Amino acid sequence: MSQISLYTAMLSMATETLPSAFIATDMLGNITHAYISKQSQHKLQYLLGQNIYRISRLMFGLDGAKQIMSSWQQCIAEQIPAEINRFEHTSTHGLQEYLDMRFAAHLTADKVIIYIRSTTESVLLDEEFVCFTEQHESVNRELCIAISNLDFHLMDLEQARKKLAALYRVTAIAQKTVNEHEVLEEILDGITRELGFTNAAILLLDDATQELKARAHRGYPEGICIPIGKGITGYAALHRELVYVPDVTNDPRYISGAASGVSEVAVPLIVDDRVIGILDVESSQEKILQDYDLDMLRSLASQIAMTIEHATHVCKVEVQAITDGMTGLFNYRHFQTLLEREYKRASRYNRTISLIMIDIDHFKKYNDTNGHLQGDETLRKVAALIKNSCRDVDFAVRYGGEEFAVLLPETSVDEALSIAERLRQSIEEYPFVNREKQPNQCLTISLGLANYPTDAISILELLDHADAALYQAKRSTRNCVCLYRRYTNPL
Predict the structure, then answer these.
(1) How large is the average pLDDT for residues 436-458?
(2) 6, 195, 205, 310: which one has the fewest Cβ atoms less than 10 Å from its Cβ?
(3) pTM of the model
(4) Is residue 208 left, alpha or beta, with left meaning phi > 0 and alpha meaning psi from -120 to 50?
């Protein structure tokens, strides 16, 4: 293996391990070399010769470009490496992204090497851990206050011990997992079992409809939906305060939900000064609650609110890690995981898998004619059309650049052909901006299709044969579907 080939392999391994880029500029700031994760050298040719300041300004804005150029110039002037940690910018989808940048001058070659690495996932997880720790400490302080306020003169020590133990068991549940549904179900079990309430529900606020909807419940009918301001729960949410009603038959606000309900407590779930829902509990008999009972419910509500917010944020981070930022489809890394999982399932149970590889025809011409901003918008629209043309069980992926893939579990060749043709027609018929300037006066896609086990007996073969079919489609007429066979023919 030549030294250049070895260096190329090393760069490929580095950029595939973490989303990253290596860029070299001359001393005037013109890009001479570029190596970026999942981007072919052919597709990166348009970067060569471009000025690093102009590219930085297009991608990160004026302030970001100034920061980058300051480090670039410092590296040259002082002849020592420079760096930018946690460089923050907002993607086209409004997502916060973080990058680490390193600058090193190679004076012998009159070059500056720039290494850029994405640290978004680790930064978000670090921030979430700090936030979770702070919230947990806040809940513990509230729990200590609730414990210190217990009035042992109104209950014997044994009763106090039982209630404190019950509260501890219920709040400890939330630390077992970040699965929101699982946590809420266990908390409600604890409330009804340990604290003696007959009925319990956790209702979350739907911001769009301004209604409280039951996410988990015990003793209530299905489909509970209460507008803000209505009933005891709606009143508690609107006024952001705990509401305790010893006898609901004497309160005109009460909305009957459970036949056995006599007394009710509604506690707002608040995160960052926002009401996100209500913890509602009822007893089957008139129940006189003391201040320590209400303090325990407040502490419990704080723990529930923290758990919901934490689970929601972790879910967002997980989705961001497997999603392509521009198109919203699954990214290439997650595609590899999906393909391996579905292949193992298919081989174990003798099922089929079909794979469609997709490439936008003459997309370079479209970019050259309309500019890269419009090209990006068209990529997003193509991705949306692909997703809308697929079934719920299919996986649509941005494979890289203007290439996409659709993984179809348990799908025969004929079924996959039907889906592929539907995809092709949906793109051909869509009125993209300036499509009349494209060949054949429309924007089109070429598709290659392979099936396991009909066309392949391994993951590598399935990928290779679908790609070969796509290559054949682009070599023949384009705007067609090609099925892999010994002699691939357009369909």
Answers:
(1) 92
(2) 6
(3) 0.51
(4) alpha
For residue 490, pLDDT over 50 is answered with no
| E strand or H helix at 163 | helix 157-173
- Please state, in angstroms and rounded to a whole number, the distance separating the CA atoms of residues 32 and 55: 13
| Nearest by Cα to 96 from 121, 115, 116, 113 | 121
Which residues, listed in sequence order, are joined to residue 225 by a DSSP beta bridge? 213
Q: CA 314 to CA 174: how far, in whole Å?
A: 14
**∠ CA(475), CA(476), CA(482), 5° rounding?**
95
Query: Of 109-123, 149-163, 172-186, which gets the smallest average pLDDT?
Result: 149-163
Amino acid residing at 209: T
Cα separation, 285 vs 224, whole angstroms: 22
Picking from 477, 455, 457, 453, the residue whose alpha carbon sits closest to that of residue 467 is 455
Residue 353 pairs with which residues in a beta bridge? 409, 452
Supply 132's token pair.
């979770």
Q: Which residue has the tokens 């500056």?
A: 112
d(CA 98, CA 121) in angstroms, rounded, equals 8
Q: What is the DSSP letter of 226?
A: E
Question: Is residue 402 among the annotated active site residues?
Answer: yes
Q: Which of 94, 118, 59 is nearest to 372 (CA)?
A: 59
Instruction: Please say whether the beta carbons of 272 and 97 come within 8 A.
Output: no
Q: What is the pLDDT of residues 287-308, one digit of tens each?
A: 677 777 788 788 878 877 887 7
**Angle at which helices 291-322 and 120-148 pack, to 10 degrees?**
170
Element holding 263 (H helix, E strand): strand 263-271
In this structure, the number of other CB atoms found within 10 A of the CB of residue 207 comes to 9
Where is 452: in which H helix or E strand?
strand 445-452
Question: Of 355, 418, 419, 416, which is closest to residue 385 (Cα–Cα)?
Answer: 419
Distance CA 304, CA 340 (A): 37
Contact predicate 267/298, CB 8 Å: yes
Catalytic residue among 402, 410, 429, 436: 402
The answer to whether the beta carbons of residues 478 and 446 sit under 8 Å apart is yes
